[in-house]
From TrEMBL, chain A:
<dbReference type="GO" id="GO:0005886">
    <property type="term" value="C:plasma membrane"/>
</dbReference>
<dbReference type="InterPro" id="IPR017781">
    <property type="entry name" value="ABC_transptr_urea_ATP-bd_UrtD"/>
</dbReference>
<dbReference type="GO" id="GO:0005524">
    <property type="term" value="F:ATP binding"/>
</dbReference>
<keyword id="KW-0547">Nucleotide-binding</keyword>
<keyword id="KW-0067">ATP-binding</keyword>
<keyword id="KW-0813">Transport</keyword>
<dbReference type="InterPro" id="IPR032823">
    <property type="entry name" value="BCA_ABC_TP_C"/>
</dbReference>
<dbReference type="InterPro" id="IPR003593">
    <property type="entry name" value="AAA+_ATPase"/>
</dbReference>
<dbReference type="GO" id="GO:0016887">
    <property type="term" value="F:ATP hydrolysis activity"/>
</dbReference>
Automatic annotation (TrEMBL), chain B:
<keyword id="KW-0812">Transmembrane</keyword>
<dbReference type="GO" id="GO:0015658">
    <property type="term" value="F:branched-chain amino acid transmembrane transporter activity"/>
</dbReference>
<feature type="transmembrane region" description="Helical">
    <location>
        <begin position="161"/>
        <end position="182"/>
    </location>
</feature>
<keyword id="KW-1003">Cell membrane</keyword>
<feature type="transmembrane region" description="Helical">
    <location>
        <begin position="236"/>
        <end position="255"/>
    </location>
</feature>
<keyword id="KW-1133">Transmembrane helix</keyword>
<feature type="transmembrane region" description="Helical">
    <location>
        <begin position="312"/>
        <end position="331"/>
    </location>
</feature>
<feature type="transmembrane region" description="Helical">
    <location>
        <begin position="338"/>
        <end position="355"/>
    </location>
</feature>
<dbReference type="InterPro" id="IPR043428">
    <property type="entry name" value="LivM-like"/>
</dbReference>
């Protein structure tokens, strides 16, 4: 197990506020990892940094066998390198059908000329993904008319369709029923058998079910790392996170 | 429908799935909107030709029709760039004008050359190339007080070069402009302002006498094709009508192909959420640049076909307001659907000719007389505001009403399909 993603000494501040403060973090392939932390701990900023949405002030983010420096790549290049992201709020293309959403996500050449001129049939592959996320019956429907849970599934489907090596999943279980949570857990555990999966989650019950290594983020730093029981026993963790009343239903991270 | 079918093997196989996917894999030529559009275009062109030859339709009407088709082509390009990709370019009409100037230069040069040669042939000595050039220069640039031939006109005598310029100059300008703008992620209203400013700059430059393009006189006499003085305008107008119709038909096919499949999905994705498209691994800037440049070239072709029918091209044509009209047409016709752009351009520009040409009767209110030549713009502006507020789908939305009514009337839909359809219609 060698590290697929190696974040070292990364800092990022917004108008003087240190969202990420000298953070180091690494994840191997295959591995399932959960990141927990209170509101404003920098969880979403961390994802933004890895996917190229924001650039770190200092530090390096290296990825893959070649240790490519992600801070020098564009969002699209990072995505093509094999990093897929699922957003906290389902962001699917509501105006397009489930099939169209999936066909855009399916791993395939991305340059305009190739996409325009070479048009392989994607129905079989899109159908397979749709079946994995239980949307076979809805392939021809506009994503905008799907229920919240179905949109979550569609976005997970789009993530799987990209065939990424590193999956960054932001609160996958938000707004799901318990049966759906169970299925999401299964899917993430399954994906983590071959790839690296990083799950950002608020719901401790869900994290417990993932049964994986946990990193606790606090004020932009990794406060503790280890099994869930281990970090839960850490007095610092109890102090900043677990000891406080649960802040469920977080809507926007820093 | 709030509950998700969690199990992937939830046997209910929605038979509409195949039906829903079918249009995408169907050949372009079999798609109903393409077929209907091409049929109507062919019908209009053929009818106009027959009626013109029987003498029922005047040459100026044929020209109006031909020009309208060119405007439709420009609107089609605008719809691709704005309606599908979400780039509100307020400068596409500049490409239209550049296309017109490029072809106009050849038309003027070649025709002047023929006239000059004819005149000089009466001299006892055969004219030298320098004499010919000077005579042409005096003829063309006399109005701006110059006889020198500007460098821009170096290849004006060559039809292939000027034809290529009508396409490549707009393409090149769009490429450079787009590369600079998209690379710095200029988007939204800032991009619109930038395109508008660029258009204004181009128009102001053209207004200058030393621009080399005859200042505010523009290029004129473009309706006369060199060497074809004995062909009547009634025939030439039909040629251009057919050329315009072919260009529009071809462009419609090309545009339909472009917006179908994954490429079209990516374009619409960029319009709705470009950050998300980036995270899927698509270089949004490359797509924007491709569509911006491609549509600029198409608009250049439209201009090259339009101005020989109009007879004159001058800097006022490129004024920023013209590009705004283009956006208004597309908005009224319905963004994001190709036929919407064509309907909007045809409807509004024909209506505009009717109102401003004195076709509409003035309304006497007793205390005030509404002269449509003055009030048409107010009416158009009001319509634009109302359409944007209350009918964002534009005239094209009417087609939806019709197709929906038709699709619910079809009986062979199973109850399952019918119910799903009803669900889709609700929100």
């Amino acid at each position: 197990m060698s590290a697929l993603l190696e974040v070292s000494g990364v800092s990022k501040s917004f108008d003087g506020f240190k969202a990420i403060d000298n953070l180091s973090f690494s994840v191997a392939e295959p591995e399932l990892r959960a990141i927990i932390g209170p509101n404003g701990a920098g969880k979403t900023t961390f994802m933004d940094l890895v996917t190229g949405k924001t650039r770190p002030d200092t530090g390096s983010i290296r990825y893959g066998e070649l240790s490519r420096d992600l801070t020098k790549l564009s969002e699209a290049q990072i995505a093509r390198a094999g990093i897929g992201r699922k957003f906290q709020k389902p962001t699917v293309f509501e105006d397009q059908t489930v099939f169209e959403n999936l066909s855009m996500a399916l791993a395939s050449p991305r340059s305009p000329w190739t996409v325009l001129t070479r048009r392989p049939s994607m129905e079989v592959r899109a159908g397979e993904v749709a079946e994995r996320v239980g949307l076979t019956a809805h392939l021809a429907r506009r994503a905008g008319v799907l229920s919240h849970g179905q949109k979550q599934w569609l976005e997970i489907g789009m993530l799987l369709a990209q065939e990424p090596r590193l999956l960054l999943v932001d609160e996958p279980a938000a707004g799901m029923t318990s049966a759906e949570r169970e299925r999401t857990t299964e899917m993430l555990v399954e994906a983590a058998k071959e790839h690296a999966v990083v799950v950002i989650e608020h719901d401790m019950e869900f994290v417990r079910r993932l049964n994986c290594r946990v990193t606790v983020l606090h004020e932009g730093r990794a406060l503790a790392e280890g099994s869930l029981d281990h970090v839960c026993a850490d007095p610092r963790v109890i102090d900043v996170y677990l000891g406080r009343p649960e802040t469920e239903g977080e809507t926007a991270d820093a | 429908m709030t509950d998700v079918s969690v199990s992937p093997s939830s046997g209910r196989k929605y038979s509409g799935e195949r039906e829903g996917l079918a249009p995408r894999s169907r050949p372009l030529i079999q798609r109903p909107d393409v077929l209907i559009f091409l049929a109507i275009l062919a019908l209009v062109t053929i009818c106009a030709t027959v009626l013109a030859q029987m003498g029922y339709v005047s040459t100026s009407t044929v020209k109006l029709l031909g020009k309208t088709l060119c405007l439709c082509l420009a609107a089609l390009a605008m719809d691709l760039v704005w309606g599908y990709t979400g780039i509100l370019s307020l400068g596409h009409f500049a490409f239209f004008g550049i296309g017109g100037y490029a072809i106009g230069m050849w038309l003027m040069w070649d025709r002047t050359e023929l006239i000059v040669l004819e005149t000089l042939a009466q001299n006892p000595l055969p004219p030298t190339p320098l004499e010919i050039e000077e005579a042409i220069g005096a003829q063309i640039f006399g109005v701006v007080g110059s006889t020198e031939i500007p460098w821009l006109w170096a290849f004006a005598g060559s039809l292939p070069v000027q034809l290529a310029a009508a396409v490549l100059v707009p393409g090149l300008i769009a490429l450079v402009f787009g590369w600079l703008a998209f690379r710095s992620r200029v988007a939204g209203v800032y991009l619109s302002i930038l395109t508008q400013a660029g258009t204004l700059a181009l128009s102001l430059w053209l207004f200058q006498n030393d621009s080399g393009l005859r200042g505010n006189n523009g290029l004129s006499g473009l309706q006369n094709l060199p060497g074809l003085d004995d062909v009547p305008q009634s025939t030439i107008s039909l040629w251009f009508l057919w050329a315009s119709a072919l260009a529009l038909g071809g462009a419609y096919l090309l545009a339909s192909w472009t917006v179908s499949g994954r490429f079209g999905s990516v374009l619409r994705g960029i319009r709705d959420d470009e950050a998300r498209v980036r995270f899927l691994g698509y270089e949004v800037e490359h797509y924007k640049l491709a569509i911006f440049t491609g549509t600029a070239m198409a608009t250049g072709i439209a201009g090259a076909l339009y101005y020989p029918q109009a007879g004159i091209v001058n800097p006022a044509e490129i004024a920023p307001i013209a590009s705004i009209y283009l956006a208004v047409w597309v908005a009224i016709g319905g963004r994001g659907r190709l036929y919407g752009a064509v309907i909007g351009a045809a409807f509004v520009s024909l209506l505009s000719s009717w109102f401003t040409g004195g076709g509409a009767p003035d309304i006497d209110l007793g205390f005030y007389e509404i002269k449509w030549t003055d009030w048409w713009l107010v009416l158009l502006g009001l319509t634009f505001v109302l359409v944007t507020l209350f009918a964002p789908k534009g005239l094209g939305g009417l087609v939806d009403l019709w197709t929906h009514r038709r699709s619910t009337r079809v009986d062979d839909l199973g109850p399952d399909q019918g119910s799903l359809r009803a669900e889709e219609d609700r929100p």
